[in-house]
Amino acid sequence: MTLLRKRLHWLSSSFAALLVGGGAPPAQAVSCDAAGPGYSNSGAVPCITIANTSFDGTVSNSGTVSPGGIAVTNATITGGIVNSGTISAHGAGIAVNGAAISGGITNSGAISAGRGIVVSNVATFSGGITNSGTIGPGGIAVTNSTITGAIDDSGSIAGGISIDSRSTVGGGLQKR
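The chain above was modelled as a monomer; its predicted structure follows.
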């Protein structure tokens, strides 16, 4: 490998690491709060995860979640997710993937993230998504999912609402 090629490889690898890591120092690892029944954050945490579990109860944030968001993966929650605080994330503010949620997602706070709310690969999602706060710049994305409630917005969503052709929102879209 020539010297020029080595330098270009090093430069492109360094740039990719900055994009993936968001510019965070490499020696700092983030430890997320693992949420369970009745979880409530009123302080400051780096991120909240709910994975491979089932419970009755609401997961709520009235504090600050940063630099990560709230991630629900392969879980069943009866009670929903409520944000009245601040979520500031590099990726998704609230991400639900392969989970079953009844009670929906409610945001009356502020979500500032690459993608505000993402619902993907969800067969059972009732209660809809309700926003009376602010979501931006990434908006809301629904992919390969069935939501039986509505997406109801009386706040501000920068970046819009994206629903792919494999998804259904039974209650439709409502802007108040």
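The helical segments are 3-21.
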